[in-house]
Structure formats: structure tokens, C-alpha cells
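Deviation from plan, reported transparently: adenosine-5'-diphosphate complex.
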Amino acid sequence: MLTCTAFLITLSFSGEPLTARYLIYIILCLLMLQAFIGIFLYRKRKRDLREIKEVISKIITNSYKSAEEIHLRGDLSELQKEIKTMFLKTQSDIANLKRLEQIRTEFLGNVSHELRTPIFAIQGFIETLLNGAIDDSSVNRSFLAKANQHTLNLSALLNDLIDISMIESGEMLLSFRYFNAYEFLEEIIQEFIPKAQEKNLSLILLPLDSSLKIYGDKQRLRQVMVNLIMNALKYTDAGSVTIGIADEAERCRIFIRDTGIGIPAEDLKRVFERFYRVDKDRSRMMGGTGLGLAIVKHIVEAHGFKVEVTSEPGKGSEFSFRVKK
Ligand code: ADP
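Because the crystal trials were delayed, the predicted structure below was used instead.
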């Protein structure tokens, strides 16, 4: 517009056949037109801003049920797309936060329940002893032994809780290195021989290349093996627990196979959840915390692999995971 006016003024001074009066009219018309367009654009901008503000305040007050309800006029359609994307992202963030809050509440509920069980039991035995059972030689020792067992369960639970919270808050730092697989497994198995003998179970380490080296955090992988072998022994009443390594190209698969009670198909997917147990009473009676497999899963995943399980009720189970070699 300004260029146009300047052009006309230039024309008038350059002696072209336009009279000065006409020129002034034209300039005035152009200035008015410019003013109208300015007013029109200003109003349009105000209306657009009002519309955007309305949509934003509706999002803030949660007035939209779905992104489809968000509408901006034609020339704001690009912005409408952006706002819809932002709305969907906010919705999914909120849903995630709600889910996490629910998991946290459930977890706290589970922890309180798990802590209450041994504490109540210990309290019960001590009270009974104080109320006279301490002088009854037929029960006093067994009550003390039971109270002691519950303190051991409590301490195992606290250790597992510390591990889980360290793992989940990202505080568990892994120290990766190569180590000898045979020495590693042999040492762990030696620890479990008394427990296997107590239950009359065979504990077998299948032959393996004694020079095989595997790569990982030895301490944490030891924790994985201890949890899996302990479970295999706990949930097997007769037969054997077999540990072996299957060699694969750049990795190997470590498996722990038992001839125990097995796990029903519908529980298989859930056994890695915190506090999930197939048979709560049996697990608790055996000092299980319900956190062992959740810890195993986290550690194996921190090594970049997945823990797997196959099982047949009444026949046995096989837990396995891979490591780099
Ligand atoms: P728990 O301390 O109860 O053993 P885990 O997290 O180690 O907790 O295991 C979760 C559940 O998975 C157990 O309560 C048990 O029901 C089932 N489970 C784990 N290992 C075995 C196994 N080798 N044989 C049969 N059931 C098993």
C-alpha cells in the first residue's frame, strides 16, 4: 500500500496526465482502504486470540472429553492440529501419572501387608512366651524358633525391598566384566547342596566348557541364580533341579530346570510382578518375599536380555536367561 502511494506521488511530480486533485482523492481512498484493512485485521486477530484462549482454558478446566471436540476456524486449522496433539499428549501424561499413582498405592498396601504378617507373628509368640509359655519346656523352644524364623523372613523382605527400590530408582549401578562361567555356577551350587540334601533332591550341574567366559555383573547375576535355584528347590518336592548352559553364537542361555509343582498357564505371565504368588500360603510358609522374580527380571533386563519361563503344572518349570559371552 505504501509503495503504491509513493508510486502515485512520484507520478504526480513526474508530470504524468494526472491532476493533483485526482491524485489526492486516490491517495485518500488508499489511506482509508489501508485503515479499513488494518481495523479488519486487528479485529480478526482479536477474535482468533479469543478463540484460542477459550480452547486453552477449556483444556485447563478439563472440559473436553476427546480431541475431536476441539475446533478452531478455517485459517487456524494448523494451530488446531497442534493443539489437538498437545491435548492428546497431556491426556496420556495424566493417564500415566494416574497409573503410576495407583501402582504406588498398591505397592505401599502390599508392603504394609507383608510387613504386618511377620511382625504380628513375632508379637504373638513373644506375648505367649511372656504369658507363661516360657516356663513350658514342651513349647518354649519351638515358639522361639518360630519367632526367629519370622525375623529372618522380615529381614529377607527388607533386603528385597531395598534392592527393588534401588533398581527402580536407577541407583543400581552394574559393573560389567568377563568371568569364568563354570567357576561361577559351581560355587553357587555348592552353597545349595545342604538344602537339596535336606529335601532329598538331586542338584545337577550339566557338563560345560570349563573355559567358557561370560560377560555381566557377576554379583547381580549371582543374585539372579540364587533366586532361581532357591525357587526351584522351594517349589520341588521330589526329583531334581538341573542347571545348565546352552551355547549360542554370541551368547549363551543359562537355564534352571526343576521337576516341581509347576506353574499354571494363567499365572505364568504374572509371576514376575512384585508380590505375585501362585500359592500365597506355600510361598510365605517357605519364607518367600514375593519379590524374587521381580528382582531377577530387572537384573536380566539391565543386562539387555529377557528372563523366560516354561512350565507344566505337576511336571516342573524351566527358567532361563541369556548372557553375552
Ligand atoms: P516367592 O518369594 O514367593 O518365591 P518369587 O517372586 O520368587 O516369590 O516367585 C513368585 C511366585 O512364582 C512364587 O510365589 C511361586 O508361586 C512361583 N514360582 C517361582 N518359581 C517357581 C518354580 N520354580 N516352580 C513353581 N513355582 C514357582
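The longest strand covers residues 316-324. We consider this an acceptable substitute for the interim report.
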